[in-house]
Amino acid sequence: MEYPSTIIKELIDQFVKLPGIGKRTALRMVLSLIKFPEEDTQKLGELISNLKTKIKHCKKCNTICDDDYCMICSDRSRDNESVCVVQEHRDLMAIESTGQYRGLYHVLGGLINPLDGIGPSELSIGSLISRVENEKIKEVIFAINATLEGDTTIYYISKELKEKNVKTSVISRGISIGTELEFADEITLGRSIANRTDYQI
């Protein structure tokens, strides 16, 4: 397709790099932005720039945040004796939206996958083990996708925690095998957290 402006074409090319955005959707977005008030487009550009310049990772749980520690880790009303281990930030957000869990989190940043060159050292597993050793954590809950890589990651971390005197559990399999947590409905995901089961290795 020919575009009347190179600026429009270049912006469309950037939008289609986002997951789930095709060229037609990108074109509609760009044409809508043209109609935005100038202050709104400037604000949008500033916020996108801030994603790279101001977003941080929580020094405790590794999730994305604005300060050194995220709002969840800083919230003294949370149950600091349980840590829910998730693959990515979006999984944390999905679980939070259920309102069924009031403990802390730990974001791994991926799963063990030797075929893709991802081993334990590429993930935030070491900092999780340190948290269990140094904080009064009594339970580690695995809320990780039920895939080969997910099960491998759970098994590896559980072995590392075996002598740490901490309970390990997994969310119940109301979540279908192969399903990503972010796409599970809130009721099913909430029940899976509430009905978690002990994990044995």
Question: So how many helices?
Answer: 8
Give the N-terminus to C-terminus distance in angstroms. Answer: 56 Å
**CATH topology label of the largest domain:** Dna Topoisomerase Vi A Subunit, Chain: A, domain 2
The amount of beta strand, in percent, is: 5-15%
Assign the CATH architecture of the largest domain: 3-Layer(aba) Sandwich
Bin the helical content: 40-55%
Question: What's the level 1 CATH class of the largest domain?
Answer: Alpha Beta
- Largest β-sheet summary: 5 strands, mixed
Question: Could you give the order of the helices and strands?
Answer: HHHEEHEHEHEHEHE
Mean pLDDT level: 89
Order of strands in the sheet with the most strands? 4-3-5-6-7
Question: Structural class, from secondary structure content?
Answer: alpha/beta
Can you walk through the features of this model?
There is one protein chain. The chain is α/β, with parallel strands linked by helices and 201 residues long. It has 2 domains: 6-53, RecR Domain 1 (Helicase, Ruva Protein, domain 3, Orthogonal Bundle), CATH 1.10.8.420; 57-198, Dna Topoisomerase Vi A Subunit, Chain: A, domain 2 (3-Layer(aba) Sandwich). It contains 8 helices and 7 strands; from the N terminus they run H-H-H-E-E-H-E-H-E-H-E-H-E-H-E. The chain has helices at 6-15, 23-35, 38-53, 71-74, 89-96, 125-134, 148-161, 186-194; strands at residues 56-57, 64-65, 79-86, 103-107, 139-143, 167-170, 197-198. The strands form 2 sheets. It has a 5-stranded mixed beta sheet. It has a two-stranded antiparallel ribbon with strand order 1-2. The protein is elongated, with a radius of gyration of 20 Å. The protein starts with 5 loop residues before the first helix and ends with a strand.
